[in-house]
Structure formats: structure tokens, C-alpha cells
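Field reference: "sequence" (input) and "structure" (output). Example, tRNA (guanine-N(7)-)-methyltransferase:
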Amino acid sequence: MGARVALPTIRAVTDPAAPAPTPEGVAHPRTIRSFVRRAGRTTTGQARALEDLGPRFVAPYRAEPLDFAAAFGREAPTILEIGFGMGDATAHIAALMPDTNFLCCEVHEPGVGALLKRVGEQQLQNIRIVAHDAVEVLRHMVPEASLAGVHIFFPDPWHKLRHNKRRLVQPPLVALLASRLRPGGYVHCATDWEPYAQQMLEVLGAEPALRNTADGFAPRPHYRPETKFERRGLRLGHGVWDVVFTRR
């Protein structure tokens, strides 16, 4: 067995309570982080996956550019996923796109363990996990113009108006994402909260380096699976909105 991988029990959303960052010339009054603290229980199966598969599939955070070819053992297009929850969609997409590498950020230990468990069960080879704040990963580990795509699925919507500033998809992050995308690379966001969907559309639309692939919201791309939660919401008349922009 490999060494136990120790991870904090925190999950991908945002944390406004820290001093301001300075991402590549973008000023912002508060640091955007991709997580808040959250309690959670790691199951026996998840803990075993962390111990057995963590040393191979969890890449340590380092404040230096990550060599994708070395990390994945091959040259292939790389997609970054921010906040994969329990990894259901991530594993589905990775299995559907075996010729693509997936660099996945999530700091919630049960989620990391759950995705590693799926990696083992499905014998997935194209996933690497960085159990660290995705914004710092983007700033320090992801080289400029290196990503084929970015997935941000169902981030915390922060429903109350006074909390909207805590949302992850804001101009500083979008500018940072755009700088890490290669020409033709894409950003795909999805949410089931319409006001956040509108904000995503506006913020991504205001970034000059990006262009919308649709006239407004995009049809759900074939690779993003429809979750049980999503199907239930659609039956109840709730919507789900996809926003897909590409790098000019």
C-alpha cells in the first residue's frame, strides 16, 4: 500500500474573507478562493482509495508550473475541472474522452476519495487530482495557453443578493482562466440557479479574450451527464443552464 494522503475537509466554492490577490494585472477587492470549509465523513472505501491510489493519481500542490506530460505520462489535451464534488460527472466524462487528460481540483476529502474509488473501479488512467485551492493551482501550476478546456459545474450559487460577491465566476477569475486557455480552448460552466447563469453569461461575455459559442445559453454538451438531481429538478420545472465560451 502507498502512503496515506492527508487532505483538508473543505470543498470547492468561494471564500471572501481573505486579503486581495493580484492575478496577472487583475485587481479585485477580495481574494477569490475555490472553497469554503465544510465538514464531511470519509468512508472506508474512500479512505482505502486515498491510501492505495492517492500516491499515483493525486499530484501535490507546488507553486511552480506542472509538466502535464510528466504528470499524465503522455502528451494529450488537458482539461481543468474546478470543484468536482463526489466525482460522478468527472469519471463519466473521463471515460467518454480517454484521449484527453483531466486535471481536477477538489479539496473535500470524501470527494477526492470517491473519485479515486471510481478511478480504480473503472480503470481510468487520464485523471490527476490536485487537492488544493483551484485559483492557486491556476495561478502557479497551470502554464499560460496550456489548457484545452475548463469545466465548472454547479458551483455554489450563493443565493442571497448580499452574498453574490462570493460567487466563483467573477471577472478576475475569468481573466485568469482566459490566460491559461490555448487559442480555441473553452470554458464550460453549468448551474441550476438562473440568476447565477445570467451572471456567468455577463461576466464571460465581458472578457475580450473569449467569445460565446451560442446566442446566449448553450445546449448541454453531449459529454456533460444529466445528474439525478438535475433530472429531478427538470421534472419539477427547474432549469439548468450551460454557458460555453472559447478563447479567441
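The domain at 10-247 is CATH 3.40.50.150 (Rossmann fold).
The chain has one domain: 10-247.
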